[in-house]
Design brief:
membrane, 3-stranded antiparallel beta sheet, single chain, Exosortase, mainly alpha, protease, Exosortase family protein XrtF, peptidase activity
Length: about 210
């Protein structure tokens, strides 16, 4: 009579799910971060360094909304080229109503947090059909939230003489941006995540052995 193999698999149940999440999350995050890093390095390493197209795009949209709100706007793309003190960082500068409002550099365009959002959703897994619309929608929501953040920072500098700027820039609006991403994650996990794509089996329907 042969003995039953009672040894448990090395990874099973929740632990296997956690490991798969970490592998997919880290792989997605690292791959996208490397690609984006190379993209930025290309513009930083030009003979005349310039801000990348994504940063230009974000700056122009911020200026466009400020225009709609009635501000007189001036946009200085690659403003670092005109300031001798600017050393390594490339950026655009916005003026509102003839006053300096904001400088927007690569770290302000929200691409890094977008990569974090993508890595989590892909890492968690779920319905691929749902991903085809959820990921673009999530990126759009993060982009809109970031444009709002930049616009409000510019307004704080111009209309409120920069009072509280450091707090709002470093903590408050950054926290709001991450809350937006967290809520998108919760939406995905609860509605379309991997656990929702697995059919639940009613124990009463399980055939007897």
């Amino acid at each position: 009579m042969s003995k039953e193999d009672t040894s448990a698999p090395l990874l099973s149940g929740p632990m296997k799910g956690v490991l798969l999440f970490l592998i997919r999350f880290l792989a997605t995050y690292l791959i996208l971060s490397v690609i984006y890093g190379q993209f930025i390095s290309h513009y930083d390493s030009l003979e005349t360094p310039e801000a990348d197209p994504v940063t230009h795009f974000v700056t122009r949209q911020t200026v466009g909304i400020a225009d709609l709100l009635g501000y007189e706007t001036e946009l200085y793309e690659d403003a670092h080229l005109y300031i001798q003190a600017a050393e390594e960082q490339t950026y655009d500068t916005i003026h509102l109503n003839d006053r300096y409002a904001l400088s927007i550099e690569e770290g302000c365009n929200a691409v890094n947090v977008m990569i974090l959002f993508l890595a989590f959703v892909i890492g968690f897994g779920g319905k691929w059909k749902a991903m085809t619309w959820f990921l673009p929608l999530g990126l759009l929501i993060v982009h809109i939230a970031n444009i709002g953040r930049l616009l409000l920072l510019a307004i704080i500098n111009v209309d409120y003489d920069g009072r509280g700027y450091h707090f709002y820039h470093k903590y408050f609006f950054t926290a709001i941006l991450y809350v937006v991403i967290f809520l998108l994650w919760v939406w995905w996990v609860n509605k379309y995540g991997m656990s929702k794509s697995v059919k639940r089996i009613d124990p009463s329907e399980t055939p007897e052995s």
